């Protein structure tokens, strides 16, 4: 059977989740390897998901007042070194340019691993007065981090992302921006990608190099590991002081502005795959699926079938739905399996008998449900089903998150729960980095975040037993 | 007067065109300098023009069947060297990465100056059968060329562009694609950017490194110099052979596919500035202007003025027009000059007297024409005036091109015409590179293109006097 022929190429996720993941990335034609380790090729189907994410997130950014810019990709070493914590974190994974043509450069330049330093250099030029604030900039670009290990979408040496960089007159405004952008990310993950998130603050150990505070959204993958899906940083005025960025306040005092940065990357696509995928392949959230409905003609050689299918395509297109028809000579069974693997949210089947009855079949990718639908209503039903697929995917993922979030009172309990179930383990934490390190060493879990607005478990640190007032999430992370 | 205060910062173009250009780039806040020579910062207003170009061109590319992808930014030296002509052209201006973190790389990598080699490496993986053809890919990215000199938008070490790369089963199909994409560029320049173009073929001396043929669109700037605004290349099967890319034909024969590439860059923004700008600053084509209509309240402290202006803004927004209101405390005169400098195509003035009469004033940026318009009709009139501004700009630029394109029969005549008038000089050419070099050395002009479908001037080469059947354009180029 054609279907089995195609699907057997994907390893079952229960057998080997990592291999299943790699298979999906390759077979669904999301990505290809290049000749440089860790540098991947985003193929049309994978890149189209990113374009969809970009388009929608960009609109949300602009609603908050952010403007897009583009900064150079190279950073002089002396510029990178201006903020001490920042350079310590990033210098070990920079790729360095030492020659321009045949000439050795006087100073070496790194390819941006992130662009705080470049933005600060520019902010110094364009911020003079309180009237110049806030500055809310964003750029879509790629960055380079010379990692030792790599996996498609999750860890690349070069990856695509956006980085927002903003400057504000007061710490309060900057903090509000940090929180606002975390909310933009969280809403986007839940409402567009159908990925439920846990919002919270990173510990000092896990925060961004040079930041005063890092906020994060953490998602749970199908294998119950954690994925950090987006971060928003509050810098205080640390970089402003290091780069000597000042403005004349309303009272005509020289003051340092307060800074944030925030980013998400193509890692989100890895999150989509591992949150929603199954043993038949990808399952794409309808709002970012490059193809939302695939039309499969049944007995397409029979008179009138292709014409009827094409008419359906035109109608769905007009209704603003991303639709594709597969008129190739493959069997319908092969096509069913192919577009299941590619995660297309809805399949529309249409054959001679359907045409006679003025109906078609819709099949949902997320749960396999089929329904007969009158041809008079396909636009409205397709839109409704796409919304249901989104809801179904979100609820399934939410259940995975809820079912596998556990409370523990001691390190031993936390360790046992993680070994038995995976998932997120909630405990109290005293705030001491030594306890955080001990949890990592003994239970193999890193801290994920200190969640916002959740009720406490108790009042003793699960590691040292001392008084504790912080709830913290632990997990095994990608 | 506020207006004069602002405008005096821009050098008159008749006094010093190069300084006028730099002034406009800086004062209109299109660009800023970074600490690395030749690497520029695209500021929000400049980047927004590029986003507008991207959005519209991308839609045109997709109509032709092209799909977007993203390739790595680094090219191993051994990969770059696979096509001899190509590497000879580009190696001297590559920036080289030699260290990853603290480790010296075994092989050095260049930051892509263009990506033919990367695409070919990938095509080798994904093209096996005639069913895999055509492959029509495009990517939006930045590239790096270590140039000695630089100017905003016209010559950057790093610049933003798009590069299309396609593979076809036959030479005819590839040639048709080369021509089709040149037409896409030409139509875009004329219909969207209001920049008339001359289409033609480059001489062998001026063609792209490694191409069999390069097609070009050449535009004439306000100073009558030439700007190469976009190119489309036909590669034959040269790269396919060098990279061993083959496919099984319908007859099941192993065959080499035929290749094209095509690109435009942020250089187009330089073209917009120098085609349309005047001594008051930028003049932006309405279809890419980040702000199409600026609303300036007159006597804004008077009751009802701001409210009326805001209502106008909402109505224009709803009509799909990009509109901005300036409610700052600057004088109307200052605001007039500011948005003139920024090239906003239409200004809408609204004050207490206008409100009484249920009217407003529209002022066109391209020719200064003012008209009184009933407030009941602002949406329709704004759309109509934007179209007229586009037409007016195109016709003015077209007149500049037509008035300053001259025919010459000898090198001496060509030289004299160029010295007296600038512009494009049309002559006959025998096809000998020696004549092309002589024209450059003696008249300071490079060949721009051999135009498509224009009538001949005569039958003797303007340089050597021998028989000639090619019409050729000469000019002084950016």
Write a structural description.
2 copies of one chain form a homodimer. By secondary structure, chain A is of the alpha+beta class. Helices cover 36% and strands 27% of the residues of chain A. Chain A has 15 helices and 23 strands. In chain A, the strands form 5 sheets. An 11-stranded mixed beta sheet of chain A has the order 3-7-8-14-11-10-9-22-23-21-20, sandwiched between helices. The longest helix of chain A has 26 residues, at 378-403. Residues 1-7 of chain A have low confidence and may be disordered. Chains A and B meet through β2, α3, β3, β5 and β6 of A and β2, α3, β3, β5 and β6 of B. β5 of chain A pairs antiparallel with β5 of chain B, so a sheet runs across the interface.
Quick summary:
Chain A has about 475 residues and is α+β, with helices and mostly antiparallel strands. Chain A has helices at about 1-5, 15-25, 45-65, 75-80, 85-90, 115-125, 170-190, 240-245, 265-275, 305-320, 330-340, 350-355, 380-405, 410-420, 435-445; strands spanning about 30-35, 40, 65-70, 75, 95-100, 105-110, 135-145, 160-170, 200, 215-220, 225-235, 245-250, 255, 260-265, 295, 325, 345-350, 360-365, 370-375, 405, 425-430, 445-450, 470-475.
């Amino acid at each position: 059977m054609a279907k089995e022929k195609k699907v057997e190429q994907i390893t079952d996720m229960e057998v080997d989740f990592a291999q299943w993941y790699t298979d999906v990335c390759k077979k669904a034609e999301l990505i290809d390897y290049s000749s440089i380790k860790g540098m991947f090729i985003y193929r049309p189907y994978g890149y189209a998901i990113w374009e969809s994410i970009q388009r929608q997130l960009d609109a949300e950014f602009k609603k908050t007042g952010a403007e897009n810019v583009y900064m150079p990709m190279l950073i002089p070493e002396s510029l990178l070194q201006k903020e001490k914590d920042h350079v310590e974190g990033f210098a070990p994974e920079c790729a360095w340019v030492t020659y321009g043509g045949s000439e050795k450069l006087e100073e070496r330049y790194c390819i941006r691993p992130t662009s705080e330093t470049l933005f600060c250099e520019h902010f110094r030029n364009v911020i003079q007065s309180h009237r110049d604030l806030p500055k809310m900039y964003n750029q879509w670009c790629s960055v380079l981090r010379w990692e030792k290990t790599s996996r498609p979408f999750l860890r690349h040496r070069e990856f695509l992302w956006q980085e927002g960089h903003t400057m504000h007159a007061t710490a309060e405004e900057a903090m509000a921006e940090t929180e606002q952008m975390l909310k933009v990310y969280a809403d986007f993950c839940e409402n567009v990608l159908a990925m439920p998130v846990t919002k919270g603050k990173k510990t000092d150990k896990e925060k961004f190099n040079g930041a005063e505070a890092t906020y994060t959204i953490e998602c749970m993958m199908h294998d119950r590991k954690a994925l950090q899906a987006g971060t928003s940083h509050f810098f205080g005025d640390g970089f402003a002081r290091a780069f000597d960025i000042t403005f004349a306040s309303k009272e005509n005092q020289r003051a340092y502005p307060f800074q944030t940065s925030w980013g998400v990357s193509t890692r989100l696509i890895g999150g989509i795959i591992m949150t929603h995928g199954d043993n038949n392949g990808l399952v794409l959230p309808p709002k970012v699926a490059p193809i939302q409905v695939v039309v499969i003609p049944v007995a397409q050689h029979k008179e009138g079938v292709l014409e009827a299918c094409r008419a359906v395509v035109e109608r769905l297109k007009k209704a603003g739905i991303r639709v594709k028809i597969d008129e190739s000579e493959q069997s319908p069974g092969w096509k069913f399996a192919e577009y299941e693997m590619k995660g297309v949210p809805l399949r529309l089947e249409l054959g001679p008998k359907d045409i006679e009855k003025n109906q078609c079949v819709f099949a949902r990718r997320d749960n396999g449900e089929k329904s007969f639908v009158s041809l008079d209503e396909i636009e409205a039903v397709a839109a409704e089903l796409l919304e249901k697929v989104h809801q179904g995917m979100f609820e399934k993922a939410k259940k995975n998150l809820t079912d596998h979030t556990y409370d523990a009172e001691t390190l031993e309990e936390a360790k046992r729960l993680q070994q038995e179930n995976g998932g997120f383990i909630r405990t109290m934490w005293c705030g001491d980095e030594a306890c955080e390190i001990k949890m990592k060493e003994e239970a193999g879990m890193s801290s994920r975040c200190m969640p916002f607005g959740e009720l406490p478990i108790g009042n003793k640190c699960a590691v040292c037993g001392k008084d504790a007032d912080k709830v913290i999430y632990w997990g095994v992370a990608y």
